[in-house]
Each structure stands twice: as structure tokens, then as C-alpha cells.
Amino acid sequence: MSAPQAEAVVDLDAYRDNLAALAECAPDAALMAVVKADGYGHGMAECARAAREAGASWLGVATPDEALRLRSSGDEGPLLCWLASPGADFAAVIQAGVQVTASSVAQLEEILAAAPSRVPLQLKVDTGLSRNGAFGDEWPRLVEAAGRAQAAGRIELTGVWSHFACADEPDHPANDAQEKAFADALDVVTAAGLEPGLRHLCNSAGTIARPSAHLDLVRVGISSYGLAPAKTMTVDVPLRPVMTLRGRLAAVKRVPAGTSVSYGHTFTTDRETTLGLVPLGYAEGVPRVASNRAEAAFAGQRVPQVGIVCMDQIVVDLGDLPAERGDVVTLFGPGDDGEPSAQDWADAADTITYEVVTRIGGRTVRTYRGAR
User: Fold this and answer.
1) Residue 31: phi, psi to the nearest 5?
2) What residues does substrate bind to (predicted)?
């Protein structure tokens, strides 16, 4: 079989090594590998298997549908999901042995209505991110309702958790405020006569930079894929980017100076040069906003992406480098051969690495290295 024309190479050995390094950051806490959003674009099922092999005792996904897809792939270990709108199929998720999260009294009632018997679940409190989780007076009401449900044998409280807003800025005052708010929230739980189970607050950034918040479990997402939680954050952990995105040249042409490229003619050559057509476009997740700003790698050199990023393809200016149809162009990778990083593409698109890797899909073929 011929090589894919658009390919994301996923290094599962690097992924396992990253998880091991992150586990060393929080040696007294259990590790949850977050594989939501199709493993941040890397492949949920494959990364989940590798995470279990690396010793991750928990996996985390956002939605019930993700949890069910993960179970259908064969995963049977501890799994938590936390983002569900009214009408979610909690019955199927509970039957699949997935632990769910209640973020309000109403949501707890939905879970109880779907549970045929005692169900393990966790409670989420909003400590300052202002997204999901019980906020303000809703928190003691949720704890009280959970206490009644547990006393009636309907639930088993297995965890209480929240999420940092600014942990990728270690000196931000919100971090101390959220830690205190979480401690106060736990006091409400114990005052109600409940054991909180697993207490967890840390995301990737908190795991790396905030040992005081490691508690019983840490949740690692972006860092497990080898990317820093923020460009400005110092990460003293040996992480290696897991994804390499590349394509094989579909066309090569020598053009004279004054040749305009792609829609709108936003780029015009200033010299005779070679243009290469790479079959990766915004349908595959290549950010259109990075047009004329990003670089790729070819034959060991950085080359500019030129013209507007199209739905199916981009154009790179290869200069005088010898090139043939089928040659490989790398958009980003770990940098071993001087290729751009996901951070470079994030900078070109004025976004974050999370978005760069998570959106990769479309007709891109994932190739896995290090599968066991």
C-alpha cells in the first residue's frame, strides 16, 4: 500500500514516556490521562490503550458519547466523564461502568433517574473558572442532595473535583484563591458527614507547577501529548511532542517571478522558484488564518507556506530545492530535523497548541508508532 498523502504520525512511545514523566511530578497522586476530543486529535482509543500501559489508573473524557466510544474500543478501567446536557443517556453510561459527574442538583436528579441501583459518581464544584460545576449556594445544596442519595443507598460518592483557570500562569493570584475555594468546598462535604473520595483539582499546568494542589489525583491532558500548557510557561519536565503532521507533494512546478498563488493572489513570487502542493488544508484542520505566516520543512530546511490555505491543500515555496511529486513535506513535529513545532503553527495562527493538534482530522490518516 502506498504511503498516505496526508498523515499524522503519532508516537505512542513518546506518549507513554510523557505520562511517566508527569507521574513523577506528582508521585503521591494517582494519574488520570485525559483523552477527550479524540485524544486531543491523536486518537482516543489508541492513546487510551497506551495510557493504561503507561500506568495511568484513570482515563478522562468530556462527554458521555466519548465514554461509550471508549468502552466500545475495549477499555474497562476507571473512566470519568463530566460534560452532559439535559437528556444525556446516563443509563447507558452507568451500565458501561463509567463514573459520571454531577455539577448541579438537577443533574444529580437526572443521574439518579437513570440509575437502576447504587451508582458511583463524583461531584464538581466551580471554584473560579465559571464553567461547569456547582457555584455559590448551589454547592451546599448539591452536597446535601448527594448525602441524602448516599444514605438511601442510591449513590457512592467517589470523588470531588474542580478545575484551575490560570495554573499555566503559576504566579497568578487566582491559583491561591481557587485552592482555598476548593478546600472550603471540601469542608462542606465533610461537614455533611460525607467522605469526598478522590480529591482532584490539577490539570497539566497544576501538575507541573503546583505541588500543593496535587491531592489524590492529577489530570493531565495537553502535556501528555508533549506540549506545554502555555507558550510562556517554564516546563522542567522532559516532554516530547507526540504528533508529526506531514503530506506528500501532489504537484511540483517551476514558476517565474511575478507568479501569484492561491485564492485572492495574496502572495506573488519575487523570483523564479519551485512551488510544491501539499494535500492538507483547512478540512484537515490546517488553520486558514495562518496563511502566508507559517512554515513547513522540506529536505531538512524550513520553507514558507504561501498563499491562502485552501480546503484541501496548501502551497509551499521550495525555492531551488530539488523536489518531485511524492516527496514529503512536514508541517510540524518534535523538531528533530529542524521542522516547525505545533507551537510555531499556533503562533502563526494566533492561537494555542491545543487547537492546532485537536483540530487535525478530515482525510488525514493517523499512523501509530510504538503500538504494543
Assistant:
1) -115, 130
2) 131, 311
Positions of E strands within 162-227: 198-202, 217-220
The residue annotated as part of the active site, out of 180, 231, 253, 263, is 263
Q: Give me the torsion for CA of 19, 23, 26, 28, rounded to 10°.
A: 150
Q: Is the torsion defined by CA of 155, 62, 78, 136 positive or negative?
A: negative
Q: Does the annotation list 369 as a binding residue?
A: no
On the CB side of 155, CA atoms within 13 Å amount to 29
- Residue 126's SS3 state is coil
- 230 found inside a domain: no
Whether residues 145 and 196 share a domain: the answer is yes
Classified as helix, coil or strand, 25 is: helix
**Residue 355 confidence class, pLDDT cut points 50, 70, 90:** very high
pLDDT tens digits, 268-281: 999 999 999 999 99
Query: Using one digit for the tens of pLDDT, what is the confidence trace for 64-73?
Result: 999 999 999 9
Cα–Cα distance for residue pair 126/310, rounded to 1 Å: 41
- Is 36 catalytic? The answer is yes
- Same-domain check for residues 210 and 277: no
Distance in angstroms (rounded) separating the CA atoms of residues 243 and 145: 44
List Cα–Cα distances, 138 to 70, 99, 108, 189, in angstroms: 31, 21, 12, 13
Active site residue 231: no
Element at 62 (helix H, strand E): none
How far apart CA 81 and CA 92 sit, in angstroms, is 13
Catalytic residue among 15, 36, 124, 354: 36
Residues 275 and 165 grouped into a single domain: no
Query: Do 255 and 136 reside in the same domain of the chain?
Result: no
Amino acid at 127: T
Clarify whether residues 281 and 254 are in a common domain: yes
Identify which of 111, 51, 92, 48 has the alpha carbon closest to the alpha carbon of residue 74.
48
Cα 291 → chain centroid: 24
| 311 assigned binding-site residue | yes
Classify residue 235: in a domain, yes or no.
no
Give the chain's domain count: 2
* Residue numbers of the domain that contains 54: 12-225
**Same domain flag for 342 and 214:** no
Q: Based on the fold, state whether residues 180 and 264 are members of the same structural domain.
A: no
